[in-house]
Amino acid sequence: MTTWPSGYRHIHFETIGSTNDEARRLAASGDCGPLWITAGEQTAGRGRRGRVWVSPKGNLMSTLLLNPRRPAAECAQLSFVSAIASADTVAHFAPGAEIKVKWPNDVLANGRKISGILLESASAGGEPYFLAIGIGINLAHFPPDTEFPATSLAALGVSSPPLPDTLTQLAAHFAKWYEMWRAHGFAPIRDAWLARAANLGGRIRARLTNEETSGVFEGIDASGALLLRQASDRLRIIAAGEVFF
Ligand code: BTN
Predict the structure, then answer these.
(1) Which residue's C-alpha comes closest to atom 11 of ligand 1?
(2) 19 lines ligand 1 (CB under 6 A)
(3) Which atom of ligand 1 is closest in space to residue 17's alpha carbon?
(4) Residue nearest atom 7 of ligand 1, based on CA coordinates
(5) Ligand 1 centre from 134 Cα, in Å?
(6) Whose CB has fewer CB within 10 Å in the chain, the N or C terminal residue?
(7) Nearest 5 degrees, angle CA 236-CA 243-CA 20?
């Protein structure tokens, strides 16, 4: 049986604006975590790239407040740790579905997005003094009409697990991969992420800040940047953006 990882605390709110905002508030008051913050529903859930994250009752809305005491570039690698942990959690509850990760940190079930991750931090010039790793998993509901199609455990025919069970799975998987990262660095995380990567070796479209480009998805480099082989055989290294198939 999966048990709650030792050393991690947990607080739950029935309703909150955003668990990532609560993590920021707690960090400002001196809490370094590790602390899981969950909410029954969010009224101001945020996604990546300024999008709204629809957060109805029945889904998992969680943020891990953490202070890894590492430089910002290394902390950013934890978005891959989180994606693997979330993918393993979804796979635990939906063993019949094909669970994959999509760069940089989405989780797909049968090709549709089931989990998203929003990593935020702040620093006073040096290392970040906190990291808020927001993880949403669509258990009971998913938003219709999203640009990248979405799904939920319920839509996969899995009856929604109770929130405490889902969080315990997520927290335990995160703790395991986080320890791996602390002990051995990014290399085993990169391998584990690539082993779960959707469309590796296939054609993808990448949307960057000012352009859209396409090519063959060759993997990620030692910093987590996307490697895209373009028509001219040029290898493009993409640090930030969004991927479509
Ligand atoms: C994305 O894929 O756009 C990221 C979604 C992140 C959603 C989670 S839900 C818990 C935490 N609180 C938020 O406001 N957002 C994150």
Answers:
(1) 134
(2) yes
(3) 14
(4) 136
(5) 5
(6) N
(7) 115
Atom 3 in ligand 1: which residue has the minimum CA distance? Answer: 47
Answer yes or no: is the C-beta of 134 below 6 A from any ligand 1 atom.
yes
pTM: 0.96
Q: Tokens 């008051």 sit at which residue?
A: 29
* pLDDT per residue as tens digits for the range 165-174: 999 999 999 9
Distance 53 CA to ligand 1 centre (A): 6
CB 173 within 8 A of CB 89: yes
On whether the CB atoms of residues 37 and 22 are closer than 8 A, the answer is yes
Q: What is the mean pLDDT of the chain?
A: 96
The reply to whether ligand 1 has any atom less than 6 angstroms from the CB of 104 is no
Closest CA relative to residue 89, chosen from 31, 16, 147, 36: 36
- Strand, coil or helix: what is 119? strand
Residue closest to 151 by CA, chosen among 85, 94, 83: 94
- Ligand 1 contact, 48 CB (< 6 A): yes
Read off the tokens for 132.
């808020």
3-state class (DSSP) for residue 12: strand
Output the CA–CA distances (angstroms, integers) from residue 112 to 66, 144, 151, 212, in the order listed: 29, 12, 6, 21
Could you give the domains of the chain?
9-195 (3.30.930.10), 203-244 (2.30.30.100)
Q: Report whether pLDDT(232) > 90.
A: no
Q: Which two tokens stand for residue 214?
A: 């396409």
